[in-house]
Amino acid sequence: MPRTLHVNGNVHEVDVEGETPLLWVLRDTLGLTGTKYGCGIMACGACTVLLDGVATRTCALPLDAVGADARITTIEGLPGTARHPVQQAWAELSVAQCGYCQSGMIMSAVALLAAHPQPNDDQIAAGMTNLCRCGTYQQVRRAIRRAVELRDA
Amino acid sequence: MRSAHAALTRRALLRGAAVLSFGLACAPRLLRAGSEPAPFTPRALLTIEADDTVHIVMPHADLGSGIYTGLAQILAEELDADWDKVVTEHLESLHDDFKHPQWGVIATGASTSVASQWHNLRETGAMARAMLVASAAAQWGVPVERLVTARSRVRDPVSGREARYGELTADAARRTPPDTVTLKDPARFTLVGRSLPRLDRHTKSDGSAVFGIDVHLPGLRHAAIAHAPVFGGRVARYDDAAARAMPGVEAVVEIPTGVAVVARSWWQAKRALEVLDVSWDDGDFATVSSDDLWHEYAALAATDGPSFEHRGELAFDTATRVVEGEMRFPFLAHAPMEPLNATARLHDGGLELWAGTQFQGVDVANLAAATGIAAEHITIHTQWLGGSFGRRAAPHADFLVEAAQIAQAAGLPHPVKLLWQREDDVRGGLYRPMALHRWKIGVDAAGRPAHWQHRVVCASISKGTPFESAFYVDGFDRLSIEGLADTLYAGANVDFQLHTPSHPVSVCWLRGEADTHTAPVVEGIVNRLARAQGVDPFTYRRALLHGKEGAARMLGVLDGLERAADWATTPPAGVFRGMAVHTSFGSVCGFVVELAAHDRQLAFHRVTAALDCGVVINPDAVRAQVASSVAFALSMALGQQITIENGRAVQGNFNDFPLATLAQVPDVDVHLVDNGLDHPTGVGEVPVSPFLPALAAAVEAATGRDIEAWPLVLEDYTFRSA
Q1: pLDDT at A28
Q2: C-alpha torsion A84→A85→A86→A92, nearest 10
Q3: How many contacts does A have with B, using Cβ atoms within 8 A?
Q4: What's the CA gap between A129 and A121, in Å, rounded?
């Protein structure tokens, strides 16, 4: 049954089975492939988007569980490396290695800074639970601190 | 060579897909053919456009280490290119120019990309520069010797005349390449040795980088596959009635490695797979568990095997002291963050594949053999790959072959993207082999290992693969013993033996390779011998290596590490430390790990690394590799293992095959050591292995117990996260 989905400021009409995880609706139906599949059990965070501003893993989140008025922001909905302090910091510090987990990592960082504008080390550790096999974690920590500087500059 | 503009447009098409058609993508190339000056392509990997853009086709896949940037820096250096005009491109061609300079096949691996391309890329850049200079000299009627180049311009200092490279491409393209070129004096390098930001930093920070999983083609269909749960198992029979009745399903096909569902979306294919009724012929391995394998390995380790290194005469009765020990290493999956996938399109008797792969040259041969399609009719479009660590260097091209076979069997007029589930990857084999080391060492009066008997039990990675002739030498797989065979710590009497059992669990190279078990063993032995002798491990290593042929770089790294880690300073109370230094992939890397122990909790106090990787192309990128490798190594230490029950892998996903998290991973102080080498050596694989024994030594110091197995068995101790 067709339904509407608010993604990155746009309203989409989608017609897929309601049990389809939001991740696959974003990727295969809407073509927003910046959000990634990593595990299918919400363990790795590669599929993280903002759902009404909250970092949310979507690989096992059925479309039916997403409210009709929910506002979804994916990596494509952020303003980019020239304008968003988190993305700017990520580019400046060349955080990404293979880069596959970084969309989810960046969305988590955006949510972290919304909840904790001046995060301490423990808040960064608690808020950034996304997995990265390349091991970019030290650079992620630095980039979050750099994003705070860029935002406040 | 394909025009760069067309390539870029096609890539844009692959991304946003739904709104474009393939015909549109080709339009820019057709339009520009007659209306623009000719680009200059002195070799297949380099094109300079009339607008000054420098396109470099990457002969190797960037698995994440940043080699695209590093390789571009090397070429741009000799070309005197304007760095802002440099664009890297994925490999699309199987031209001979892209073959690995040492291996003779298009492939990426063993941390050789920068090291092996160093000369080739310098020469290519210098040659192109010489031809551009020759064009300017001819146009201006001046001798080439007086012209200078910088930032993609040729300048005549006498007349002040200047030309952009782009103004010279049409003429340069008609010139004969010079027989010899002069390479720059490294003292004049302006790009090599600089921490330039990565060229992929924007597309990998805004979601626009296209990985294999993101490839979109018109009419694309999606496949999910059921693999045999038992290693060595096969499909006995299957009933696809229920699966075919599921929404979106268009085909259910059997291929040699399983049964696949092809549907309009991947989720539909996966859901249909859940109701697909497959009976498996499990085979003989269905009763085997890890315990059985360890019993077999331990029995082998108790007996003599063939010696791969034998010199002198073992005489333990003459030793001052004899020590014995054992260390076990489990199977490990690569678990790259992007699950394995490939997109196959059949048309006009040919096969096109889109995938992130390290092994294009090897893949083509495997694909030709598996599909019956001649290699010259197979194209591989390399994509960004979401990690690999060796998994996308599949000796039999498993996931690519499956995609092609599914497309063939489905017989649909559509391209098919096969995407493995995470569990297919973690349970699918090609693991770092499980390994058992046993040693018996007779120590002389000075505490040195004068008599060293060592047995390794490890299945062969290369046997039965296209790499057997390269690695399986004199009955020994070098991939089982690298890092031990040539240890500089051993004395005059050595007998190193290798047992090579076989089992249906397939094994493969994993980041760090054999050194992930040989380094923890060798460095662990050295740390324990020093401890038993009551000698500082730094001093002990220096004494063992002093005067040994080939030890200069290890000594240099040891000294650098000792200074950087303030080793001479006694650590504060409650802080325990360990060190290790190891040579692999042409480089030397050492770590000092300091752990704070409190209430049976261990926490990282400080981690220091030193690396000699020869000429450093991009210092920040190298430091990032060393620091990030600690997460990879820590995952091995703190819980990763694949165990076998009833012939099947027990673990299946990140919940039971855990990766180290941000909270667990310490900051690392990385020091680059210059021992005067005049060329680059390996980086990406190198730091994983030495971290493990440095950590183990610190854990042993803190807990008072010797490490005998990985992942670490800490009993009543725990690692505290930040």
Answers
A1: 95
A2: 110
A3: 198
A4: 13
